[in-house]
Amino acid sequence: MIQIHGIRPLTLASCMAALALLAGCASTKQLEELAQRVEAVEADTAAAKQTADEALSEARAAKGLAEDAAQCCVDTNAKIDRLFYRSQMK
């Protein structure tokens, strides 16, 4: 769950709703709509975090494959250099 300055959004929304009730400027319907919007934002945030975690996992896997490919290239170049050196010695 995302926190804003150490306060969770739902807690922040609850505090704001309480203040609005004390001031008498928000109806029950408005408070319910606000709570629904907060829940929707939390759901979107959770989905975005999951997507980011999956992307990070795939990026780490790709980095590992790239490192393996780079090492293979180094090994192949070394082998070609040895073969070339041997052919020059004949």
3D structure, described in words:
- This protein is mainly alpha-helical and 90 residues long.
- It has one domain.
- The chain is built from two helices and no strands.
- Helix 1 packs antiparallel against helix 2.
- The radius of gyration is 29 Å and the shape is rod-shaped.
Q: Which key terms come to mind for this protein?
A:
90 residues; mainly alpha; 2 helices
In round numbers, the mean pLDDT is 83
Total domain modules: 1
Structural class: mainly alpha
How large a portion of the residues is in β-strands, by DSSP E?
A: under 5%
Taken in chain order, the helices and strands follow as HH
* Termini Cα gap: 70 Å
Number of helices: 2
Q: What kind of sheet is the major sheet?
A: none
Instruction: Tell me how many strands there are.
Output: 0
Unreliable runs, pLDDT <50, ≥5 residues? none
Shape: rod-shaped
- Give the radius of gyration: 29 Å
**Helix percent band:** over 70%
Quick description:
Helix content is 86%, strand content 0%. It is an all-alpha fold and 90 residues long.
Layout of SSEs?
Blueprint: H1 9-23, H2 28-89
Helix pairs in contact: 1-2
